[in-house]
Amino acid sequence: MELELRQETVRGWETVCRTALEQEETGEMIVPDACPDIWQVLDGETRLLLQRKEPQDGRGEFSGLLKTTILYQPEGEEGVRSMEVTLPFSASPELKGLTRRSVLHVIPRVLSVDVHLLNPRKVLVRVSYCLDIEGFAPQTRSLTACVEGGEDKGIRQKTGQLRSFQTVYVQEKNFTYQDAVVLPAGRPDPAELLRTRAQCTCTEARVIGSKLVFKGEASLQLLCRGEDGALFTGDFHLPYSQIMDAGEDSEEGMCHMDLLFTDVKCTPSPEDRRTFQVELALQAQAVLRREVTAEVLTDLYSTDYDLQPEEEACPILRLLGQGEEQETARETVEIGSVPGSLLDVQVRLGRASQSQEGEDRVLTQEVEMMVLYDTPEGAAAVHQRAAVQHRLAGQGAGSCTFAVELLREPTASPMGEGVEVSFPLSFHWLCLERQETPVIGRVSLGEKREAAERMPSVTLRAVRPGEDLWSVAKAYLTTDQEILDASGLSPEEVFPGQMLLIPRKSS
Questions:
Q1: Which of 405, 434, 463 is the last residue of a domain?
Q2: In this structure, what are the phi and psi dihedrals at residue 493, rounded to the nearest 5 degrees?
Q3: Domain co-membership, 219 together with 283
């Protein structure tokens, strides 16, 4: 006969898929009629705008735009010009375990941009990009808390706490930011807005009740050409504050927040060319995690009946470590000559990887540096790649996920025949270990034991190493309290080597 069990329900979210999808898009573009012919391409910078991500059964659907701003030297004219090329992209990768009820979180990265001049009026643009995809599915797990009504059958039960570090809530929110920014008084009047850079960071995220309050700032950098042809920048920091749902059981958890752009617009005001209207569309992706504790049945026996418990393997996650640590990188970009004035410096994050060295884990972030500088012949640009590493001491076990963020715009200074570029990176990391813990899933009640099958009326023996009072009582089909009463001991006096007087359980 199968016994009735009381179940405890644990709800949360499970990572059902995690992958990095790399793709490439290529397209040709005719130089707009309003733009002069191209003599030399200086730089191509791409912003990836993820505008759609939908979970389906067994796959995900993604689409958006790759907007590449090309800086170039015009033919027969002085000064730098720009043009924009827009390439649509889409992807539908197979993602096992995903369902329509899942939630997809994505971190997009542009890996490389190649602009090839076909002729003075046509360019070929090739963009390689990556989507770091993680899929979450709601999970409900039932765990056995105890046997219902087992006292009349002599059933003894032992419970314990099952602890697992798990995702308790996954949420996302789309929001917009609109504002007008004005170039500082020390900047000249712009003749043309050449390029807009935008970056968004979250500086604080905390749960209050059932709400997640998060805030940070969007960093905006405008590259402009003055009326005299000189290039200059305008830097702005736009604070934001938002509220989103956080579920009912997330207040004690830790929050990880990723922000991505779905659209960026910056247009000069028709009334004042020093004023720009800014429209930012973003999506906040929040994951809340904490240690979840459940009271579960870990062992049982009956003093009167045979019991057949069936164990199940319950997967749990153990937190090995998590943190946010910074690395300030300093790299020398070789130019081959003494550079003139520096016009623009940019650091772009590429592929991320990790490796294990002994008991340590090494996180590696590839970067591409671009330096735009002045020469007697006009503006010139140089690109150089590097890798920034961060070592996690003692975190070689388990699995590790991490994300890297450029904290602020890089700084640069001439050094010999090159430029030293300095930039701070923040490494957000989480290391977990997956374990299988046996739990009791079903219990069947067997035949009642006959008196002849029972133990002798009294047994004298010592507690062996590794034994506790429960295991001794189970072995002799009695109760721990009857052993204590017969031995004249308290629970604190039971230790290896202690002699116990073990009576047969009274009927």
A1: 434
A2: -95, 5
A3: yes
Mean pLDDT by 10 residues, the chain (507 residues): 89 93 96 93 96 96 97 90 96 95 95 95 96 95 89 89 93 95 92 94 90 93 91 93 84 86 94 94 95 92 90 91 92 84 91 91 94 87 94 87 90 89 94 91 87 66 90 89 92 90 74
Residue with tokens 């993680």: 134
Distance of alpha carbon 21 from alpha carbon 183, whole angstroms: 39
What are the counts of helices (DSSP H) followed by strands (DSSP E) for the chain?
A: 2, 21
By three-state DSSP, how is residue 36 classified? coil
DSSP letter at 2 equals B
Place of tokens 């973003």: 282
Joined tokens for residue 121: 């009026």
How many CB atoms are closer than 10 A to CB 116? 13
Separation CA 386–CA 425 (nearest Å)? 13
Q: Are 238 and 264 in contact (CB under 8 A)?
A: no
**Range of the structural domain that residue 120 is part of:** 11-137+167-289+320-434
C-alpha–C-alpha distance, residues 442 and 299, integer Å: 12
What is the pTM (predicted TM-score) of this model?
Answer: 0.87
- Cite the DSSP H helix spans in 391-468: none
**Which position has the token pair 């604080």?**
204
Long-range CB pairs of 16-19 (<8 Å, 24+ gap) are: 16/95, 16/96, 16/97, 16/98, 16/102, 16/135, 16/136, 16/137, 17/95, 17/96, 17/97, 17/98, 17/133, 17/134, 17/135, 18/133, 18/134, 18/135, 18/401, 19/93, 19/95, 19/133
Q: Give the Cβ contact number of residue 329 at 10 Å.
A: 18
Q: Which of 306, 295, 6, 296 is nearest to 155 (CA)?
A: 306
Assess whether 355 and 504 both reside in one domain.
no
Longest dimension (CA), the chain: 110
Half-sphere exposure of 281 (CA within 13 A, CB side): 10
User: For the chain, how far is it from start to end, CA to CA, in angstroms?
Assistant: 22
